[in-house]
């Protein structure tokens, strides 16, 4: 059950129950059907999973770069730069992209963590997520949905319709400080013109495993990869999570797909691991894939 469905169920259930039992004290009803404790439990689980994943990424990336540093023409990996000095050392704010940013509770934690580390985060919500409903009807719901209550106290959410010449003009965009959320299909998603090869880290938990349509790219293509592969800057990292392959033929097919989407001449496979139901890949972009 995704976060949106989860919240809708509890608020709807509480509303129906209250109409039937008008004589019962409203505070008692709110206590019975209060989703916050369960949301907090889900968030706690996501925190544990997210923290372990981040530690795994940092450890594998650090070990890889120390061992193979001579193979790269850059001296720093932005993701490993100290958070307190990153803006000064790099001369800019780091950028991250997370997808799907609403459907999975783990993605919510990743957004929070990147913002805490000083990143500007772009989130990609799936078309089936009723993002606009939460924004228009209940601002508190969207705060709970993103688990960003403490960060949003002084910043109100704004809902706009993106019309910048995009094919699907009804794309929903939600913006606040250091967070830009776009509701759009991954297959048709494209960064803004200055967004190509600009992200320092991409977390793809769906994942998208198809080559980017050249028509979406305003630059010359050097190598074929996904839109996220083109979105990452040289020295940036890409974390991809897929369903695990049970049989040998499925494993071979998945391995070939990953190699085709992220060719080794441009993306170094830093680490790969198998969990209970998923498989995770960590890539370091070693060369530009677009001529800009």
Protein model, in words:
The protein is 37% helix and 22% strand. The relative contact order is 0.12. The model is unreliable at 1-8, 10-15, 17-45 and 132-170 (pLDDT under 50). With 292 residues, it is α/β, with parallel strands linked by helices. The chain is built from 9 helices and 11 strands. Helix 3 packs across helix 5 and helix 6 (131-137) packs across helix 7. It has a single domain (54-291), classed as 3-Layer(aba) Sandwich (Rossmann fold), CATH 3.40.50.150. It has a 9-stranded mixed sheet. Strands 7-11 form a two-stranded antiparallel ribbon. Strand 1 (95-99), helix 5 and strand 2 form a beta-alpha-beta unit.
CATH class: Alpha Beta
How many H/I helical runs?
A: 9
How many distinct folded domains? Answer: 1
What integer is the average pLDDT? Answer: 76
Which percent range describes the beta-strand content? 15-25%
Main beta sheet: 9 strands, mixed
Order of helices and strands: HHHHEHEHHEEEEEHEHEEE
The level of helicity is: 25-40%
Low-pLDDT residue spans: 1-8, 10-15, 17-45, 132-170
Corresponding CATH superfamily: Vaccinia Virus protein VP39
And the CATH topology? Answer: Rossmann fold
Radius of gyration, whole Å: 21 Å
What distance lies between the first and last C-alpha atoms, to the nearest angstrom?
A: 42 Å
- DSSP summary, beta strand count: 11
